[in-house]
């Protein structure tokens, strides 16, 4: 939508991959329905000592980086991808079962529960994982207040390209994107709305119809107050 309005779009070639999404193909019991979104196996599993193996049970990350499984997510994702292509396999294995069972269950209860639904006990069996597209680093080019080159158009969050991430997103930047820049974008957009002489009701009526107009005005008022 922003592109059609001639807003500048930047860095769309930079897509961050999460290195370890649950690979349903490798589960003992396949899910009955295809997942709408990948189930991500947190990087904390590797941080807590999880080890990556190919299906030949060969540990491979030391071949790609001296930090092995603790390398940045883009390095790990590329290492896994290289293994999959070289070996013609569809997933690798993330093993944490050498750790204490109680600690695994207390640290990763959601992962343990989701895997158990599919017949996999992560305290005894490795987790099948594969990289998954996770975050678009690029988007609509934004200034320090979320402003774009299109007057009156402000952006924040995943749609925006603020330059905070560079080519490789840092997970902690989510707070900056979702909170700091969202707050910065809201203030000038409210000012613009109040100072604008355009008849906004015409466009709202065209999109929503008269029956929804009152509800939308109430919703916008509440959001602006919040």
Automatic annotation (TrEMBL):
- Where does this protein act, in terms of pathway? Cofactor biosynthesis; NAD(+) biosynthesis; iminoaspartate from L-aspartate (oxidase route): step 1/1
- EC number assigned by the record: 1.4.3.16
Spell out the protein name for this chain: L-aspartate oxidase
Task: Please verify whether the record's keywords include Flavoprotein.
Answer: yes
| Signal peptide range | none
Q: List the GO molecular function terms.
A: L-aspartate oxidase activity
Query: Which protein family is it in?
Result: Belongs to the FAD-dependent oxidoreductase 2 family. NadB subfamily.
| Domain FAD-dependent oxidoreductase 2 FAD-binding, residue spans | 1-175
According to its UniProt entry, one GO biological process term is: NAD+ biosynthetic process
Keyword annotations from UniProtKB, A to Z = FAD, Flavoprotein, Oxidoreductase, Pyridine nucleotide biosynthesis
Question: Which reaction equation describes what this protein catalyses?
Answer: L-aspartate + O2 = iminosuccinate + H2O2
Name the coiled-coil region(s): none
Its taxonomic placement starts with: Eukaryota, Viridiplantae, Streptophyta, Embryophyta, Tracheophyta
Q: Which cofactor does it need?
A: FAD
């Amino acid at each position: 939508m922003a592109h059609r309005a001639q807003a500048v779009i930047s860095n769309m070639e930079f897509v961050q991959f999460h290195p370890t999404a649950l690979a349903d193909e490798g589960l003992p019991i396949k899910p009955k329905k295809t997942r709408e979104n990948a189930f991500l196996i947190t990087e904390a599993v590797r941080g807590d000592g999880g080890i990556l193996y190919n299906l030949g049970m060969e540990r491979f990350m030391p071949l790609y980086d001296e930090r092995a499984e603790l390398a940045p997510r883009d390095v790990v994702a590329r290492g896994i991808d290289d293994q999959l292509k070289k070996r013609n396999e569809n997933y690798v294995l993330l093993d944490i079962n050498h750790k204490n069972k109680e600690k695994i269950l207390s640290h990763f209860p959601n992962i343990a529960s989701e895997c158990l639904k599919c017949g996999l006990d992560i305290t005894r069996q490795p987790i099948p994982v594969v990289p998954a597209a996770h975050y678009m680093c690029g988007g609509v080019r934004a200034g320090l207040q979320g402003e774009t080159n299109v007057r009156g158009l402000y952006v924040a969050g995943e749609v925006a390209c603020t330059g905070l991430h560079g080519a490789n997103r840092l997970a902690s930047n989510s707070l900056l994107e979702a909170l700091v820049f969202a707050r910065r974008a809201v203030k000038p957009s409210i000012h613009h709305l109040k100072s604008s002489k355009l008849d906004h009701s015409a466009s709202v009526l065209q999109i929503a119809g008269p029956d929804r107009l009152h509800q939308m005005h109430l919703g916008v008022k509440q959001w602006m107050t919040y």
